[in-house]
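sorry for the late reply, my laptop died twice this morning and i had to redo everyting from scratch. anyway the thing you sent over, i finally got around to it. pasting the sequence first so we're on the same page, its 597 residues, then the predicted structure underneath. double check i copied it right bc i was rushing
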Amino acid sequence: MRTTFRSRLLLWFWALLLLAAAPLYFFIADSVKTDLLNNDRQLALHMLDGASWLLTHHEPFADDARLEDWAQQVGDRLGLRLTVIDGGHVLADSKVPWDRVPEMEDHSTRPEVVEAAHGGTGMSVRHSATLDRDLIYVARLAELPGHDHPLVVRVALPMAELTQRLDALKTRFLIILAACMGCAALLSYWATGGMATSIRELSSLVADIGRGAYGRRVRVYSGEEFAPLVEAVNRMAGDIERHVGMVEEQKGQLEALFNGLSEGVMTVDGQGRVVSVNSSFREMFPEAEHGEGKAVLEATLDAELARLVERALKPDFSGEGPRLVLTRPSGRELEARVDAYPDPSGARRAVVVVQDVSQIRKLARVRRDFVANVSHELRTPLTSIKGYAETLSAMPPENVADRDRFLGVIQRNADHMSRMVDSLLALARWENSQPGSRTVAVNARALAEEAAQNIWPAAQGKSVSVAVDAPQDLPEVMGDAGGLADVFRNLIDNAVKYSPEGGSVRVAAEARDERVVFRVEDQGPGIPGHAKDRIFERFYRVGDGPGKKDGGAGLGLAICRNIVTALGGTIWVESPLSDGKGSAFAFDLPRARTAAD
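ok and here's the structure:
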C-alpha cells in the first residue's frame, strides 16, 4: 500500500523524535537508577551499622530461637530483612519462620557473605529465591555475645521503591513522548498543509490540462521551494496551450481545405474500412454520410470502387494508383483514383480521390459537336461559293443572266456566313458575362414592340400577325437593351418561321412580384418532348418542320439562353399549348427598382 507524502513526513518526524528521545530516556533512567541504587546502598549500610551495634550490645541469647525472635523484631521495626549467618549456616532470618530456618540452603557462597567473611563489607543486588523479590544485600562481621568468633550479619532492603520510581519515570516519559508525537503530528499536518494544497492544485492543474483546460494557471502557492515547479508547470501549460492552439488552427485549416476540395476524398485503413470522407465525397456518394468505420462497399454501395480499393491495398501492388470511371444512377460521371501509402506502423492505407468529370466530358462532347457543326455550317456555303466562283470564272462574258444569278447565290451564302460569325461572337460574348454584371433599367415593352416591327416584313410574307400584349404600366426590368432586343428578335423570328400561313404570334408580358415574365407564343407544330432539354444547345435544331428550310445554324436559342442568364433571368419552353400544337418560349427578368421602392 502506497503512503501519502504527509504520512511519510509524519513517520519521519516520529522516527526522529524516537531517535532523539530514546538515548535521553536511557540516560535519565540509568542516572536515576544509579542515584537510587546508591541511596539504597547507603541506607542499607546505615541499617547494617545499626543492626550490628544492637546485636553486639545485646546480652547473650539463651539459644538460637531467642536470636530468631530478636531478628524478627528488629527487621519488622526497621522494615528490612535481617539475617545472622555462622560459616554459611543461617542462625536467624527475620523473614523466614523459625521452623523453616534449618531448611535454608548454605549461604557461604553468597557474594556479600564471601566478602564479609574476609573482613570487609559485602554488598550485592540480586533476586531472592526465598522471598521472590529483588533485594540489596549488605553484610559485615559482628561480635555476638556468647560466641567465641564473629558472625556475619546481613541486612537486605527491597528494591520496590527503585522499581516503582523507574516505572513512574517510564510512564511519565511515555506520556511525554505520546504528547510530543501528537504535537509532531499536528506540526507536520500544519507544515504540510500548504504543501499539500500546492501539490493538489498542481495535480488539479495538470489533470485539467489533460482534459483540455489549457488556460489554467497556478497563481498562489506556499513556500519558495515550489516556485521553480510552479513556474515550470505554468510555462508547460502555456506552451501546451500555444501548441494545441497552433495544432487546432492547422487542423481547422486542413479540415476547411479537406472539405473545401471540389474533389471527393475518402481515406481507408488497412482493413478496408472508411476513416474519413469530405463533404464533396458525401455529395457524390450520399450513402457515405455516416460511413466512418464501415467497409467501402457498405459506405458507397459501389462494388467497382470497393474492388479498386481492395486492389490498391494489396502488399504486392505498386506503381501509379488505379483509375476508374464510375457512372452514378443520376447520370454523373466520376473518375476515381486510389493511391496507397504506409502509415507510421507500416500498415498500408489508401486515399480515394473522386473527381466529377461529367461537365468535362460534356464540354468535350460539346466541343466536338461544335467543331463538327461549325465545319458543316461553314463548309456548305463555302463549297457553294467556291463552286459558283469557279463556274463564273469559266463562264463567257456575254452570259449576263446566269452571272447575276450566280453572284446572288454567292452573296446569300456570304451573308449566311457573316450572320453565323456574328452569332458565334455574340454567343461567346454573352457566355463570358457574369450574371447581372451588365444590367440597367430597361423598358422591355418598347423593345418588344420594336422587335415585332422589325420582323413585320417577314411575317407579312406569310400572312402571320404579330401582336404585343403588354400593359402600358409594365415595370422596367434590369437588363441590357441590346441583348434584350436580340432575345425578342430571335424568339419572334423563330415564332414567325415556324408558324403556318395565316397564323398568329403573341408577345405577352406581366409583372409577378419582383419579376417580369415575357412569353412569345406561336401556332407552330410544337416541340417534341425529347427535344425540350436540348433545344437551347448550340447548333441544335428540331427535325423537319415549316421553318427548317428558313432556319439558321441553330445558334439563336443558345444566344437567348446566354443573354437571359447573364441578365439574371431564366428561360424555358412550354409545348404544346393546345391540340398538340403551338409553343411558348418564356423568360423572366428582375424588376427594376423605382424611386418609390
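The two ends are 84 Å apart (CA to CA).
thats about all i looked at so far, will dig more tmrw
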